[in-house]
Design goal:
2 domains; two-stranded antiparallel ribbon; disordered C terminus
Length: 122
Amino acid sequence: DYGKMKAAILHADAVSREKQRQHFRRFCYQEAEGPRQVYDQLQSFCHQWLKVERHSKEQILEMLILEQFLAILPPEMKSWIKRHNAESSAQVISLAEDFLLRQRVLGITEQEGGEELVVRSE
C-alpha cells in the first residue's frame, strides 16, 4: 500500500534527521584535533541534519523552531508528543493542545512553581 510505504519512509527520514541533530548538538571540542577540524565537523553534521541542499530556508527555520519548541516544553508534554511520532510543526502544536485539553478533561493541572503535573481532587 502506497500510504503505508510513504509513512514508513517519512518516519525513517525523521529518525535519521533526529540522529543527525543529536550528532550536531552533542559533538564535543575534544572529539576533533583543533578548532578547524571542530568547525568542519560541526558544519558537516549541520549539513547532514538540515540537508541544506534539499530544504528551503523556511523548512530549515521550521526545523530549528520546532527543535527549540520541543526543548522548552514541560517533560510530560514533550514525552507524550514524542510517543505520537509527530513529523511537522502543525502536528506537534496540535498534539500539545490535545495534551492540555486531555489534562483539563482529566482534572490535571500544572503544579505552581514546578513542572510536575498533579491530579486535582474535587
